[in-house]
Structures are given as C-alpha cells and as structure tokens.
Design goal:
4-stranded antiparallel sheet, two-stranded antiparallel ribbon, alpha+beta, 34% strand, 127 residues
C-alpha cells in the first residue's frame, strides 16, 4: 500500500470486505455487527463498528419509538407508499431535516426522507 491515498472509493471497497469478514464473528456470538461511519484524511481513516443484539432495536429505531408520537408519525415498521415504491419505516436520525430512515421493500435499500414526506404518504383519515 505504498503511496496509497485514502479515497471514498477505497473506503467503500474496504467497508464491504470488513462486513464480509465480520459475518463469522456475528454468527459466533449471535449478534449483528457491521462497519459503520467512516472518516478519513489522505493517509488515515477511522471506521466505526456497530453492533446489535439479536431482537434488539437499533439506536435509530429507539429514537423513532421515543419521538414518533410527537410528530404524529405511525409506528415503527409501518409500510407506506412514496411514488410507486413501498417503504418500511426503520428509524429516525437524531439530527437533520431528512431524518426518517426508510427501507425499500422490494430490494432492502435504505433511503432517508423527511417527516413531511412520511406524513403526506399516510392514508387520509376520515373526518
């Protein structure tokens, strides 16, 4: 790795390889574990590991559970349609306007939406 520069492309490949390597450790201990947030300079990087006990709620899911009622949002794991795709609510980030974590039901890809997007996608209540 002489004269190598740390780049986002390199970190993406490294994250995939780290996640693959962690599968055995996760199975051995009955947990979920994956590479989390990464930060870097040209010559150094830091990669956070994130873990979850089987059946536990992620940090984002816990935040959503604690605050969804304040915004009139539906319960965690509610399905909703945005455009032509169906998504499942998976959690809430602690900061930012795009803070609702959504998982596309068709392929499991993760997206982030706003509270307003989620509220507009809910079925209208009869008055």
């Amino acid at each position: 790795m002489a004269n190598k520069t740390i780049t986002p492309a390199f970190l993406k490949i490294l994250r995939e390889e780290v996640n693959e390597a962690l599968k055995g450790v996760a199975e051995k201990h009955g947990i979920q574990i994956s590479a989390g947030h990464a930060s870097y300079t040209e010559t150094t990087f830091t990669l956070k590991l994130e873990g979850l006990v089987e059946g536990g709620l992620s940090r984002e899911a816990q935040i959503y559970e604690a605050s969804h009622g304040l915004y009139g949002l539906p319960p965690l794991n509610t399905e909703l349609t945005l455009g032509k795709d169906v998504f499942v609510i998976k959690g809430m980030k602690a900061r930012g306007t795009k803070c609702i974590l959504l998982e596309k039901k068709a392929d499991g890809k993760e997206f982030v939406g706003t509270i307003d997007q989620v509220l507009k996608a809910l079925p209208k209540k009869d008055s």
